[in-house]
Amino acid sequence: AGAHKEISLIITLPDIMFASAFTFATADDKPWRDPIRWTVEGSTPATDWILLYASTYDHPTPLERGKQLQWFPINNGTLTPYVFSSYRFTVFKVRGGVALPDLLYQYTPCGGLTADSVSGYTLGDIDTYHCGGYEVEIPFNVSCKTATDVSHAMSSVNYPFIDNYATRFISIEFFLYNPQFDDFVSAKFYSEVAACGMWVNKFQIRAFRVWSDNDLLQTIFDFFFLVFVFFFIYRFIVDWRRYVRRRGIWYNFLLEVWNLLELANLLTFMVVFGFRIAWWMESDRVRIKLPAPSVFPSLDKLSNLTDSQNLANAVNMVITFLKFLKYVRLNNRLNLLTKTLSKSKEELICCLIIFVYVVFAFSLSGNALFGANIWDYRTVSTTYSSLLRMLLGDYEYDVLKRENRFLAGMFFWAFVVLALFLMLNFIVAILTNNLSLLTTQGSGTDIPFDEQMAQFIFKLKRSFHPSRISHELALKIQGKSVGDLLDHAADNLEEYWKAIKTCSDCGELTSCICNVGEEVDMCGRCGATPACVISEGNHPLYYTDPTSRLVFRNELRCALGSREYDLLGESLIDDIWQEILWDWEMSQRFVKSSGGEQEKLVGDAVVEALVGLDGQHLGAISEIDQLDLKFKGLE
Fold first, then answer.
1. CA distances (Å), 320 to each of 53, 176, 238, 477, 517, in order?
2. For residue 401, what are the contacts with CB-CB under 8 A and spacing of at least 6?
3. What H or E segment, with its residue span, contains residue 259?
4. Strand 183-193's sheet: what is its strand order?
5. Half-sphere exposure of 265 (CA within 13 A, CB side)
6. Could you count the other beta carbons within 10 Å of the beta carbon of residue 152?
7. pLDDT digits 0-9 by tens, 205-248
């Protein structure tokens, strides 16, 4: 039937009957045929049709199928004494619109709507909305006339679905294509309808790509980068295994800040590649061939996957730059930030916990006081954000004052005094105090940056020397690695130093003598571990005075272990020794009076030399750092 064609329904009763009201229900299909304007008449065999009810406006008949309308009273005026045997229901106007059921408002359950198929709900500024709802979809392959008719039907008063009474959230989405850049654009316009009738409008524009043959080179690069990431995952696992083998406690490795950042960096990379692979698969599934596809597939999933990749990459960028702070430790001045945070971490964590607690308490209070009428305080989460902005000076005190003149002042000044003047300044005081301590302790011990760079370049050149590379390849072929050998060498060095310390403690230092070709108990009276300290000749050790002990180059075979020494090779051992000498020279330049500081610097120099340039070998071993090394010079 047309939108304005009269349709009548006559109900004949077996006897006359008085009717006081009437109603009807919508059909189970074809919403465009719903009546929106009608009349009701009555008659008897002896009378003509008499008007009982007439609608004077387009009634908002609901779109829900099988929905019964309210009861309409029959206003027959002076006709009350009369009764009728026949009643006629005449429809003068129907909803009209497009005669295609799949283009009209159809209820879609949660998970079916394209807008939020991943999250399951929509988080708005006013409320959180269920993902199900009534949906109108205009496919790409419909004619322009059909799309126009649907648009007109949605905005027509004859199709009163969107109103200020029942509607709370509206989302309009469409896609654009830019052939110059081969990019798609997802445009989404959101409107929230508050209970008072206010409309809050927002929009979201997202650009994304669909994989095509033009992206083949980029895909090849992505796979090479994935191999690179897998290599670093392997290195991370190897270092973790070494740590567990030496410490026996696996979770302490993850509690170290730099290891935690490394793990977060690698896991985020893998998440990005997961989204990337899903994006490739979805692009292959939809198989868009421009410029004129007959049927366009849904692009929402591709848009969501692109957004997920961008989000993960943004987080990973921050993690990557935080990792760079690890390498500023080459310079004491640049290392002040990480040292200060490390020294202050316990106090900072306690203060931050109290700070978060205080702000949360004021968030609950602010939401209760001002949430009903002030937009920025409408929820606890928005109140929390508003209070944090208040600490930075972004607030509107006059708005709070208009809402409650007395309580606004108390709330504002209580929060500013407690959170800003006390808590934040207390945090600043902790950082300032520890920075001052570190600056005082490290005063005058900075190594010139040009000398550090010269030493770094020297290490780099030695690392890429052909003899070094060929030696490491030979070890790889034998199934050995420099890292594992340095692990064992560090174990031997630790035992060696423990034996020396035992000799020092027992006081029988002159009895420590090493003969070639035989093992002699060092300090036999105190039960020290047998060890060879000098590699040639009968030589009394220079350990008669604990304050003047020396370490010799020819002792390294005994200290590191003969097997490990031979496998590492003279070239690598010489490089390690040169690094130790350089570190000792730098420490001697700045440390003149503090013997304890000298001992610490010497121990750090030995450990750093064994650790290597990449910071991986033995990087997680802290026992060596904690040894009481009581020697003061290197020769």
1. 75, 34, 21, 33, 53
2. 408, 409
3. helix 257-286
4. 169-178, 183-193, 199-208
5. 19
6. 14
7. 888 888 888 888 999 999 999 999 999 999 899 888 878 877 77
Query: Which amino acid is present at 583?
Result: D
What pTM was estimated for this model as a whole? 0.61
Say whether 90 sits in a helix, a strand or coil. strand
Per-residue pLDDT band for 266 (boundaries 50, 70, 90) equals very high
Rounded to whole angstroms, the Cα distance separating 460 from 468 reads 11
Kindly report each contact of residues 614-618 with a partner whose C-beta sits within 8 Å and lies 24 or more positions away, as own/partner.
615/326, 616/235, 616/239, 616/483, 617/482, 617/483, 617/486, 617/487, 618/242, 618/483, 618/486, 618/487, 618/490
Rounded Cα gap, residues 616 and 487, in angstroms: 11
How far is the C-alpha of 618 from the C-alpha of 444, rounded, in Å?
Answer: 29
Residue 581 in tokens: 């000498």
455: left (phi over 0), alpha (psi -120 to 50) or beta: alpha
Helix residue ranges, H only, 64-169: 144-155
Rounded Cα distance between 258 and 326, Å, is 7
Residues 392-432 have pLDDT tens digits of: 989 889 999 888 888 899 999 999 999 989 998 899 999 99
For the stretch 149-188, pLDDT in tens is 777 777 665 555 666 566 788 888 888 888 788 788 988 8
Q: Helices (DSSP H) in 442-509: which residue ranges?
A: 449-463, 466-477, 482-506
Is the Cβ–Cβ distance between 168 and 129 less than 8 Å? yes
Tokens of 377: 């305080």
Spatial distance between the Cα atoms of 382 and 411, rounded to a whole number of angstroms: 16
Q: What burial letters (b/e) apply to 428-459, b meaning 16+ CB within 10 Å?
A: eebbeebbeebeeeeeeeebeeeeeeebeeeb
Q: Which two tokens stand for residue 370?
A: 């001002």
Nearest Cα residue to 586 out of 444, 417, 464: 444
Checking if the pLDDT of 29 tops 50, the result is: yes
Please give the structure tokens belonging to residue 307: 């957004």
> CA-CA distance, 278 to 316, in Å (whole number)?
19
Of the candidates 36, 145, 140, the residue with the CA atom closest to the CA atom of residue 98: 145
In contact, 105 and 136? CB cutoff 8 Å: yes
393: left (phi over 0), alpha (psi -120 to 50) or beta: left
> Which structure tokens are listed for 7?
């349709």
Identify residue 596 by its one-letter amino acid code. Answer: G
CA distance 393 to 126: 25
In three state form, how does the secondary structure of 403-456 look?
HCHHHHHHHHHHHHHHHHHHHHHHHHHHHHHHHHHHHHHCCCCCCCHHHHHHHH
Find the range with the poorest average confidence among 83-97, 568-582, 620-634: 620-634
| Dist CA 343 CA 37 (whole Å) | 79
Distance (Å, whole) CA 357 – CA 423: 11
Is the bond into 291 cis (omega within 30 degrees of 0)?
yes
Closest by Cα among 25, 20, 36 to 74: 20
Summary count for the chain: helices (H), strands (E): 18, 17
pLDDT at 410: 92
Radius of gyration of the chain (CA): 41
**Spatial distance between the Cα atoms of 258 and 263, rounded to a whole number of angstroms:** 9
Cβ–Cβ < 8 Å for 602, 631: yes
Q: Going by DSSP bridges, is the β-strand pair 35-43/121-123 parallel, antiparallel, or unpaired?
A: unpaired
Helix (H, G, I), strand (E, B) or coil at 92: strand
Euclidean distance between CA atoms 262 and 323, whole angstroms: 7
